Amino acid sequence: MDPAEFGLAPPRPVGDVPEVAQAVRDAIAAAGGRVTFAQFMELCLYHPARGYYSSFGPETEEAARAPAADYVTSVDLHPAFGHLIAREAARHLDRVAAGGAGPLDVVELGPGRGLLARDFLQAVAKERPDLHGRLRYTLVEPNVGWAQIQRRNLLPEHAGRVRWVRSSGPLLPLRRLRGVVLANEVLDALPFHLVERGRAGLEEIYVGALPGGALVEAAGPVSDPSLARALERGGVELAPGQRAEVSLMAEALAHEVAGAVASGAAILVDYGDEAGQLYDPAARPRGTMRCFFRHRLSDNPLVRLGRQDITAHVDFTAVSRGLGAGGMEVGRLERQAQFLDRTGLPEFVGRLEADQARLPREVFVRHRRAFMALSDRQGLGGNLVLVAWKP
Fold this sequence. Notes:
Radius of gyration: 22 Å
Number of strands: 17
Mean pLDDT: 91
CATH architecture of the largest domain: 3-Layer(aba) Sandwich
Helix content: 25-40%
Structural class: alpha/beta
Oligomer: single chain
Largest sheet: 7 strands, mixed
Low-confidence stretches: 1-13, 57-65
CATH class of the largest domain: Alpha Beta
Strand order of the largest sheet: 4-3-2-5-10-17-16
Number of domains: 2
Number of helices: 15
CATH topology of the largest domain: Rossmann fold
């Protein structure tokens, strides 16, 4: 169809962010012809000026660059998610509060638009005012643009309770925390390496460039012996031809979180599995890497550089290992549907059903669908919720 025949403007092609594409090709040239997939991801997602997560791109409209334009998380669906996270956190904050006076820390990594912080603080103010008066909620945010959006969503209502710190990479610039660290769909966004079992053993999949500039995959020896050790520690042996993702940064961040907490807990929510299931060659022979762009899935990360999300399932065995090395004990690892059921989602559903007669039908349906989506085990309800603590 020719759009002009119908009086329509032709669709605008969506290509690379020029600065990101140039940075990728410059890095490939500087490295002698190829970079690891982790280095490629770092540039695409976290390029200082124009990466997917670090800028709003050429569009000036906030929504055009918000990840919610490409995918939806539990926080976007309904405030009940943050409310129930707050209930779980309160159990651990009670234990910390019993240990002495002083502020109770809640630290959120990857706070996005600040919706989880807003819902969390509103829930604690309503259900646990005794804790609310002692809360110090810290948003760890490296990007000024996102911090501005968070401030609009949190201030002035929560002034005096929230603060911001900047960080980059798998480092947490805080120590001796007494409270809870939160991360919702953060670990999956960390750069990871691609590996494959070749004829000669474990190989790494790199990103290279053809003479004309097109990006291509290139196999070679592993860049870091830690990749093989990470699989070995998880009891994983890839089948011939099997491809997989290995995130050294996810385990490093988990270790960093555990080391930052003097007393309290970590609540980490993400899609993923324990190593035995994640690296099952029958279920996932080509790994779990996928891209999101305008709510469409793709398996090609070498296009739309800087404009699409690149992600993979989280190895919760490695994350648990990182937490344990930092002195935390993993107490629970359960599907989000189970977690929400345990912490009180049925109460929300029950109240909604009781109010059905007085609510406009579209309002009732919207809330009901959100609750169903939060607990759908084929979708967000299938995410894993890991709760670890340190005495």
